From TrEMBL:
Residues 1-392 form the Aminoacyl-transfer RNA synthetases class-II family profile domain. Its EC number is 6.1.1.21. Keywords: Aminoacyl-tRNA synthetase, ATP-binding, Cytoplasm, Ligase, Nucleotide-binding, Protein biosynthesis. This is Histidine--tRNA ligase. Belongs to the class-II aminoacyl-tRNA synthetase family. It is found in: Cytoplasm.
RNA sequence: GUGGUUGUAGCUCAGUAGGUUAGAGCACCAGAUUGUGAUUCUGGGGGUCGUGGGUUCGAGCCCCAUCUUCCACCCCA
């Protein structure tokens, strides 16, 4: 008998009852938001073929995919020279499956496989865990849940506008008041690169610019030069950092800088159209201001996002004044299904990071009390007679749709009351000899500490 | 993946220059209170000091490895 201490892998967590209750509260609000906008649920397997996932997230992403070792004698088909050719070569020989890295690529795979059954535009949402072999930190786990909503089969920028609406709606319903929805466009980034005579280098430029609020303008300048961007280009780039004024004014300023680049023009037109849709939708995201006075929806040319499949608008959401990375992000991808042999299907989607939202709500104490209670009423018993008397009462409560339980033994009152207190049960019903004789049960409101003698019918009415 | 950091009772932490039976608060259990919880009083249980090696007469404390935590890069939900 080995008595090893049990443990769970790095970056994974157990969720106890109280935590699950709060997580379900978040899932519920997100699910309702998605459904309000016409998205329907989809679920896909935890594991995908490795070939489906590789190459979709850039080199960095490929490194972070959890591979599953082939079962059985996984070395059967390998030869000594496979080892000599390095781990990447060997990986393909001993691993054919991998845990999904996000929900967007499996969705694209699903669309391609079911292209003949699907009616386009196809709107789906998906709430499932994903896995990344990242090094864990606060708010960064190796297993975490994403809540994705994507639509494929339409180029309409109404989808982008509705994504802004969904983000604003869900986060507002969760009680958040100080958050920023950043929006940008890959075309704008490409146009900027072209306008400063560094066409095609937007990748390097983005990685550097993205750190602006972290390392400052000087730090970014240094990094850009290290990445081989010319001094000339950096000088042209820097005025873009502090575009000021309203979003409309920013668009106008960008127009004069990028107007004559094809990509830049495409990006600006898309963004203007998104704004027009939002105005039509009377978007609260468009008019809302954060406590700081900044607009909630912000055009941010420094927003980059690493996932390599994005081609159009990109989004990212940051809760202000908490130490937490982005809690939501997404964008448009024009050719994801093309990689699986179905070209010409444009898609756009975004994702909420529930685990981070959870940590933020916890920090800001925004979980409502109702998300933390389990049972509505506990029946306390005193002896065998009262237990038997309580059984039909218990059933009547449940038939009336009230979640109820009977303490399963005639333990001391203190213990039974303590149980209710611990479990955050708001009402206790006491059934003893007096109550059985009179037919009036004692209903105790645990929060107020008051109790009244009531018939079972009266109790049901009150608790319903 | 690179460089750091953390790990002592269920939880939050003490633990002095390596020296007998490792402590506190909270939580838990029992009693004060044989029909009433979150307050009060009394008593009680619980730790092979993350794990595995090593140095030493002797290690919670020193060394190595490993796992874990958190942080900065990288990247990202």
């Amino acid at each position: 008998m080995s008595k090893e201490k049990p443990s769970i892998p790095k970056g994974t967590r157990d969720f106890g009852p109280a935590v699950v209750a709060k997580r379900n509260y978040i899932f519920g609000i997100i699910r309702r938001t998605f459904e309000k906008f016409g998205y329907l649920p989809l679920e896909t397997p935890a594991m995908e073929q490795l070939s489906v996932l590789t190459g979709k997230y850039g080199d960095e992403g490929d490194q972070l995919i959890f591979k599953i070792l082939n079962s059985g004698d996984f070395l059967a088909k390998t030869k000594p020279e496979d080892v000599e050719q390095g781990y990447k070569h060997l990986t393909r020989k001993i691993s054919e499956k991998a845990l999904r890295y996000d929900l967007t690529v499996p969705f694209a795979r699903f669309v391609v496989m079911n292209r003949n059954e699907i009616t386009f535009p196809f709107k789906r949402y998906q709430i499932q865990p994903v896995w990344r072999a990242d090094r864990p930190q606060k708010g960064r786990y190796r297993e975490f849940y994403q809540c994705d909503a994507d639509v494929v089969g339409t180029n309409s920028l109404l989808c982008e506008a509705e994504i802004v609406q969904m983000i604003n709606g869900a986060l507002t319903d969760l009680g958040l008041t100080d958050f920023t929805i950043k929006i940008n466009h890959r075309g704008v980034l490409a146009g900027i690169a072209e306008a400063i005579d560094e066409k095609g280098r937007e990748g390097d430029i983005c990685v550097a610019i993205d750190k602006l609020d972290k390392i400052g303008q000087e730090g970014v300048r240094k990094e850009l030069l290290e990445r081989g961007i010319t001094v000339d280009a950096v000088n042209k780039l820097e005025p873009l950092y502090d575009l000021n004024g309203s979003n409309e004014e920013k668009l106008a300023q960008l127009q004069s800088i990028l107007g004559n680049t094809a990509e830049g023009e495409r990006g600006l037109n898309d963004l203007r159209e998104v704004w027009a849709y939002l105005q039509g939708l009377q978007s609260k995201a468009l008019t809302a201001e954060n406590p700081s006075g900044e607009p909630r929806l912000m055009l941010d040319v420094t927003l980059a996002r690493g996932l390599s499949y994005y081609t159009g608008c990109i989004f990212e959401v940051k809760v202000n004044n908490v130490s937490m990375g982005s809690i939501s992000g997404g964008g448009r991808y024009d050719n994801l299904t093309g990689m699986f042999g179905l070209p010409g299907v444009s898609g756009v989607g975004f994702s909420f990071g529930v685990d981070r939202i959870y940590d933020v709500l916890e920090e800001l104490q925004l979980f409502p009390e109702s998300s933390q209670q389990s049972t509505t009423a506990l029946i306390v018993q005193f002896d065998k007679d009262s237990e038997m008397y309580a059984l039909p009462v218990l059933q009547q409560l449940r038939d009336a749709g009230i979640s109820a339980e009977l303490y399963p033994e005639a333990a001391k009152l203190k213990k039974q009351m303590g149980y209710a207190d611990q479990k955050n049960i708001p009402y206790v019903i006491l059934i003893g000899s007096e109550e059985m004789a009179s037919g009036k049960l004692k209903l105790r409101d645990m929060k107020r500490g008051e109790q009244h003698d009531l018939t079972i019918e009266e109790i049901i009415t009150q608790l319903k």
